[in-house]
Amino acid sequence: MISHAKIPFVVFETEPENAQRARDWNFGIHWSVPLLQDLMPPELFAKLASTRVDPHRPVQPSETLRFLNGATGIEIGAAFIPHLYRVQRSKLRALLAEGIPIQYDKAISTISYTEDGSTVAAHFEDGTTVSGTILIGADGTRSKVRNLLLGEEKAALDRLEYAALWVQAKYTAEQVKYLRSGHPLFLACCHPLGYFGWLGTHSAPDQDVPEEWVMNCYISYKEPIAEQEKCKKWPNEGNLGEVKALAELCFAEPFKSAFGWLGDEQEVWYSPLTQWDPSLPEHQWDNHSGRVTLAGDAAHPMTYQRGQGANFAIKDSLELVNHIGSFLDSETKGRKEAVRVYEQETKERAGEEVRLSYQNTEMVHVWEKVLQSPIMKHGLNPTS
């Protein structure tokens, strides 16, 4: 923790301890790496490299995310990313959990507030209640805390007319070598027909056994919400057939092979895109005199084609530590003011990125606009 911030806390996790999710994710931490270093004890930050998707490859001063023409395989642009850590979600969570108090299997059901304005209480589905000074809802894209603060209608995710077919798969050693030949971490493509493709490494546990590695790839595209409702009901074989046919008919290498080599039992996830802008007037929540607030994906779910979600969550964490620490250390600055300042900065900063990420998602699916998209113009850097 930051040396000056002596903040007592407890983390309540909805999932049971050691829960195994059907899907694990990976994401890039880049401009927020120095912020994360400020937040983590030095001995834990020293282990950050171990959480990477390929921990055997040395950390590079910078990486290049190449963008290909999805139909021809010819490079059309690139984004340069300094001090990138491409990490597995499960590994990073395990590292961050070391040495901190976590209570597992604690699903929140309601929130209550004392009349004197001093404390907030979280009531859990198991019948227990815990009271404290501030409750921070950092419970993900479909946040229950956001729901409790705003009601289901206002807290509901904004459904977008884009969807993706996701795959995490193993291949033969030779196939893995080929799929990583364009870049060992990731490769993207924009297709003249309006598709966006991604191919990357998800897990490389043993550098000598590439057939046990997991590759991560998806194809996203514009799709009306009415059509999404139909596609959500498809069986897995329908999704698998769709993504394999799409790659075979439309895509150049290595995306064609990444999907074409999938086995008959390979699981494919259909995933409509969503967002939620915390800066909109209708999305302003009552923080009950600074007793409850939101952070991370609970506060600002955004599309992922510009790779900003985790970095903005880390920025939220640093801001919370600084503002909460400031009121604990001050005789004049109160909790209400500290949380107000945090929320004002977070809503403005993250709201802008939610909108920019959506603009980027739109543009990378329109061939004539790809080269003017935010990721091509700004890379993965924040714009403010």
UniProtKB/TrEMBL annotation:
<keyword id="KW-0560">Oxidoreductase</keyword>
<dbReference type="GO" id="GO:0004497">
    <property type="term" value="F:monooxygenase activity"/>
</dbReference>
<keyword id="KW-0274">FAD</keyword>
<protein>
    <recommendedName>
        <fullName>FAD-binding domain-containing protein</fullName>
    </recommendedName>
</protein>
<dbReference type="InterPro" id="IPR002938">
    <property type="entry name" value="FAD-bd"/>
</dbReference>
<feature type="domain" description="FAD-binding">
    <location>
        <begin position="287"/>
        <end position="352"/>
    </location>
</feature>
<dbReference type="Pfam" id="PF01494">
    <property type="entry name" value="FAD_binding_3"/>
</dbReference>
<keyword id="KW-0285">Flavoprotein</keyword>
<dbReference type="InterPro" id="IPR036188">
    <property type="entry name" value="FAD/NAD-bd_sf"/>
</dbReference>
<keyword id="KW-0503">Monooxygenase</keyword>
<dbReference type="GO" id="GO:0071949">
    <property type="term" value="F:FAD binding"/>
</dbReference>
